[in-house]
Amino acid sequence: MTPQMKYKIPLIQKGNSRALDFVLKGLLSVLLLGMAMPAFSRGPGKPVSYNFGNTINITTVNNQIANGVDADEIIITLLDPSNAPIPGVSFVFGFVVGGININETYVTNAAGQVVFQITGNDVGSVSITVKTGGAPIPGSPISLNFIAGPPDPSLSYIVATTTPMPADGTSQDVVQAVVNNAVGPVPDGTPVTFTIMTGTATMTTTGVTSGGIAYAYFTSNTVGSVQVQAQITGGAGPAYLTDQANSANNYVTVQFIIPPPVPALSYIVATTTPMPADGTSQDVVEAVVNNVNGPVPDGTAVTFTIQTGSATMTTTGVTAGGIAHAYFTSTVAGSVQVQAQITGSSGPAYLNDQANPANNYVTVQFTIPPPVPALSYIIATTTPMPADGTSQDVVKAVVNNVVGPVPDGTVVTFTIQTGTATMTTTGVTSGGIAYAYFTSTVVGSVQVQAQITGSSGPTYLTDQANPANNY
After folding, report:
1. Least crowded by CB within 10 Å, which of 156, 162, 326, 425?
2. How many whole angstroms separate alpha carbon 27 and alpha carbon 70?
3. Is a pLDDT exceeding 50 seen at residue 51?
4. What does the pLDDT look like over 403-448, one tens digit per residue?
5. Which of 55, 46, 51 is nearest to 112 (CA)?
6. Which of the two residues, 134 and 273, has the higher pLDDT score?
7. What CA–CA distance (Å, rounded) separates 365 from 272?
8. Is 373 exposed, middle or buried (0-12, 13-18, 19+ CB in 10 A)?
9. pLDDT digit string (tens) for 91-137?
10. Which residues are CB-neighbours of 112 under 8 A, at least 6 positions away?
11. What's the whole-number mean pLDDT along residues 226-248?
C-alpha cells in the first residue's frame, strides 16, 4: 500500500470557512523507508497561482533539484467572480504529521496568491490532490517531481589514483573524475572531458561516468610530470573539476619515472678473454643494461660476482652509457664463471650470456703465462771438459714466467753460435729447466744460445753471469 499523508486546510474568506484537503500519494523515498515525516518543508511565499471562489487556479513550480533547498511550489490564486485577484485573504493550513496537529496561516499577496513550498532530499515524485468540498478542484491531482539535477562542480573533484608509473609506453597512470549532483553520483553516461594541460603522454578515457566516476588512462615514454584536467557541465555551464587533495588547483599531476632495467633486453658478455694468469693481465666482462627505451641512466647499479674459479675482481659497480664493467686478474690458470645481477620490475635478476642465453653467466679464461726472458737465463753448468768426443759440457736454460718456473714441456731452442761441437738437448723444460749437452773432438770454445718465446715473441736468454751476453 502506498503511504499517504492527508492535510486538511480550512480556507477562511470574509468569515466563511471552507476546507481543502491535500492528499499526498507516492511520497518521496524517505517515507518509503519508514520515516515519520516526508522530506519537505514550507518556505516563504512566491508568486504562484490558485483560484478561490468561483475560480480556483492551481499552478506549480516543478522539477526542482532534490537537494533539500530548491522547492517545488503549489501556487494558489484567489479570484472573485469577476476574476479579479483577492489580496489579504488568510489561509489557515491545518494538517496532521505524526499525530501532531499543525496550523499555519498564509495571506494572499497583492496578486491574490499564496505559495505552498515543498523541498525534497530524494529523487522522485509526489502526487498531490487538492480538494474543496470533498471533491478535487480543477487541475488536481498535481505531480511534483524532484530531480537529480546537473553535475555540481562544488561536489565533484578530480584525483590521481595511480601514479607514478614507469615511462615505458605501457604502464598506466590513472586519473578519476568523481562527479556528483545535489543528491549523489550523477547518472551513468554523464560526459566528462579530460585534457592534458602540460606534459607528454598518450591518453585514453571512458568519456562518460559509470557509478559517478569517469576514468582517464595515461602512458608515456617521456620521464616527467603531466598535468590533467577534467571538465563537466554544471548548472552554470562548463567547469573544470578541482584536485581533491589541493582544491586551489583545477588539475592533477601524474608522474612518469625512469623505467627499471629489463633483464630480457640486457645481457652479460666477456669482451676480453683469455688472458695470462700473471696477476696483472685483465679479463674484462661487460653488463649491457637496457630498459624499454634503451640504455639505462648512468649510475644504474650492477652487481658482479664470481660464481666459480679463482680470480681477483674489480668493478665499476654502476653503468655509464648503459654498460658496467668488471675486471679480473688471476695467478691461477683456468676458467672463471662470472655473473651480473640487476634489479628489474620483478626484483633482482641475473643477466644471460649474450652468446649463450641459456646461461646466466659468462666464462673467462686465464692461460699459463708465457715465459719472461727478463726472469729467465742461460748458464753453463759443466765446463770445461776434454775434447774427447765423449765428455759433455752442459748448458742449462732456466725459464720462468711471472709466477715462477714455466710448466713442464715449455719449448727451449738451443743453438751453437760459434765453435765446433755436437749438441743434444731435452728441447723442453722439466721443472722450469731445459738442458743442452755438448761433446767435441776439437779443442776450443763454443758459444751457445737458448731461445724462448715470450709475450713479445722469440727472445734469446742472457747469460746469468754476464747479462750483457745473450749466450
Report:
1. 162
2. 17
3. no
4. 899 999 999 999 999 999 999 999 999 999 999 999 999 999 999 9
5. 51
6. 273
7. 9
8. buried
9. 655 443 344 455 566 677 888 887 777 777 777 777 776 665 556 66
10. 52, 77, 78, 79, 84, 85, 86, 87, 89
11. 96
For residue 31, pLDDT beyond 60? no
Which residue in 145, 160, 16, 144 sits closest to 91, CA to CA? Answer: 16
> Measured between alpha carbons, how far is 170 from 215 in angstroms, rounded to an integer?
17
pLDDT for 72: 82
Backbone phi and psi for residue 154, each to the nearest 5 degrees, phi listed first: -70, -15
Task: Compute φ and ψ for 458, nearest 5 degrees.
Answer: -65, 140
Sign of the C-alpha dihedral computed for residues 179, 182, 188 and 189 taken in this order: negative
- For residue 428, what are the CA distances in angstroms to 398, 399, 412, 425, 456? 11, 10, 5, 8, 19
Asked if residues 390 and 443 have their Cβ atoms less than 8 Å apart, the reply is no
Contact (CB, 8 A) for 158 and 211:
no
CA 224 to chain centre: 12
Quick check: pTM over 0.70? Answer: no
Q: In angstroms, rounded to a whole number, what is the distance separating the alpha carbons of residues 402 and 373?
A: 10
Q: For 306-364, write each residue's pLDDT tens digit.
A: 999 999 999 999 999 999 999 999 999 999 999 999 999 999 999 999 999 999 999 99
Per the omega criterion (within 30 degrees of 0), is the bond before 274 cis?
A: yes
Return the sign of the alpha-carbon dihedral for residues 409, 410, 415, 421: negative
Contacts of 42 (CB under 8 A, 6+ apart): 104, 116, 117, 118
Rg (CA), the chain: 52
